Fold:
Amino acid sequence: MTISRPLAILLGLFLALLLAIGFSLPKYQNLKLLQSKVKEKETELQTERKYFSEVGEAKEKLKKFEQEISKINSALPPEPGLPSLGNFLQIAASQNGLVLKKIMPSPAISLKEEFIKKGFSPEIKETGVNLTVSGDYPSFKNFLSNLEKTARMIEIESISFSSPEEETAIDFNLRIKIYSY
Structure:
């Protein structure tokens, strides 16, 4: 069987075309797959750029409130800071004409569920401090006023007092709570 020359050329071209398509089709599919991955990565990159841009804008906005943030940080320090609190209480008591007789902290505990439900952070810790100061009532009243005005979050939980018969100074027992992260 002999094939005419034009038919052989057509058949050869057809076979060459099939081989070219057969070899280039997987490469073409691979190219399309890589192009879709590149588009996906570009979208991911745009999303990350937008995110970091928003973070930068938020950082700039926070810089405007730096003073307020420092007040919050001093009101809610990362640790209870009991030595500095003891020093503050000693100074406040003496400035108001009181004598700090006793100070006794209790361990830090997590906030109660009721506060967390109200929106307070569960990371906030509460530390109780029992203290006894001695002096007259007006001095004690000024001392309480100073505690309320301090930048630190101090909550007076209870107050009791007793007056010994032979002394004129009154012993005031306080239970205060301080907060920290």
